[in-house]
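Predict the 3D structure for this chain.
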Amino acid sequence: MASTIILVSDMHLSRARPFFQFNWEIFLQAMRADPPDLVLAGGDVALNAPSHPDDLAYAREQLDRLPCPWLMVPGNHDVGNNPPPPETIDTRGEITISQALLDHYRNVMGPDFWTRDIDGWRIIGLDGLLCGSGLPAEAEQAAFLKDAMAGAGARPVSLFFHKPVFRDDIGETDIFQSVWYPRARGLIRPYLASGHVRLVLSGHTHEGRDETVGPTRHVWIPSLAFVTDMQGEWRPDLRGRRRVGWLRMRLGLGLAETIEIVRHEPDELLITDISGWMRCGGIRHYEAFTGRRRFPGMPDTEAADR
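Done. Predicted structure below.
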């Protein structure tokens, strides 16, 4: 019998600013009522750990309340965002990944890239925020991925990371914060082209989407915490469903149709729309609400903003 795997993402948990704790409690109740075999968390489990390190420690405490094993990949609110491509100017106002942030993540959460074999599949978790960072771990991850793919043998592979690979097309050259930068896709494009990767799982966009491109099914995990522009009045159309919730997945051997994914959006969940935060200041306004402060070993970003 296939294992039950729960996909949850973008919970944005915080001890000091528990804006989204209610939905996490509803999720925990559902997990305890019908425990899965594994929970995969798609990143941004913390509200804003690069600015407030205790958010990550609290998120770890919350994950440990689950009644089953769990694995996660880091998001930009856990370990810092990707550095922008060198030909662009970074106007995001967001802290980028550093060795200090990476070390903190690993100390609290464990490895940021890993493999798990289950039901005849190989799931490979990656730290997409490393791409373009120049940190030693970036090259280590590339070598790890090569070995993990080779070691999969005939098993179908699922790649799992925080940001989706692309917005509209894998060959797109425009730069979007919501997906992998074009140059960064070089890490995974050969494996996608090979047909060996049958499933890609990601979060980050706070939307649910499920599309198959060639031999690969790309699934966006919705946020458990909040949505942005649920009515579709101003945010670009990403072809996703803007609701809070989680996904239940079963993997079978064979063709892509043996991947069973069911969306869960219980009525008990609060649907919080942070459109106001994002329209009146974007990530900088988000930082103002989530407690920006200097991380040990990092430059004084508040002074830099001034």
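Residues 294-306 have pLDDT under 50 and may be disordered.
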